[in-house]
Design a protein that fits this description.
Radius of gyration: 46 Å
Order of helices and strands: HHHHHH
Strand content: under 5%
Largest sheet: none
Shape: rod-shaped
Number of helices: 6
Number of strands: 0
Helix content: over 70%
């Protein structure tokens, strides 16, 4: 009887051990499966992100090349910044009458600085720079400087006068010098007001004699 009872106890214990081992094995199998599934999901997501980044990088590289920007070794963020900076430079260039096509950022910066300098010179000479290209401004600036030089030689103050005003005053000044010479008056070093006075003074005695 005792032997039978002992046998039952041992059989029960063995059954419990087997069930426990089976449960542990099942749990371990589940853990391995879950880990594998999680790894697959993470790998899939990582692949999708990587694919998306590569696609964005290629798109930005293509845009950058269109702006003559070097793309080698640059990240997505770097390219975005340089493209936006270049768009801003192109906008500035167009406002200054500069054609931006085919020019890289460094070339645009140089031309923009020159364009701004020309506009500043033009304004000082009384020239309106709006809507004029750098080449047009150069020509008008050179003409403006030449007019100022002529004006000074005639004793005319050019400051604050635009080219049209200077042309009129220069023509009047030349006419006065011509009149002065005909009357025997030396015009050198005399401004238009002085010449007018001398011309009028010279004419007055002649008028009195005629009377």
């Amino acid at each position: 009887m005792k032997k039978k009872l002992f046998g039952y106890v041992m059989a029960g214990a063995l059954g419990v051990n087997i069930l426990g081992a089976a449960s542990t094995t099942f749990a371990a199998s589940n853990d391995i499966h879950n880990t594998a599934s999680k790894t697959q999901v993470e790998t899939s997501v990582s692949h999708q992100v990587s694919t998306k980044q590569n696609s964005e990088l290629k798109k930005l590289q293509s845009q950058a090349k269109g702006f003559s920007i070097k793309v080698e070794g640059k990240t997505v963020d770097q390219l975005k910044k340089e493209i936006n900076d270049c768009k801003d430079l192109q906008s500035q260039a167009k406002k200054l009458g500069i054609k931006p096509d085919g020019k890289n950022p460094d070339q645009l910066k140089k031309e923009i600085n020159k364009g701004k300098d020309l506009q500043s010179q033009a304004k000082k000479l009384g020239i309106k720079p709006d809507g004029k290209s750098p080449d047009q401004l150069k020509k008008e600036i050179n003409k403006g400087k030449d007019l100022q030089s002529q004006a000074k030689k005639l004793g005319i103050k050019p400051d604050g006068k635009n080219p049209n005003q200077l042309k009129k005053e220069i023509n009047k000044g030349k006419d006065l010098q011509s009149q002065a010479k005909k009357l025997g008056i030396k015009p050198n070093g005399k401004n238009p007001d002085q010449l007018k006075k001398e011309i009028n003074d010279h004419k007055q005695p002649q008028n009195q004699v005629k009377k």
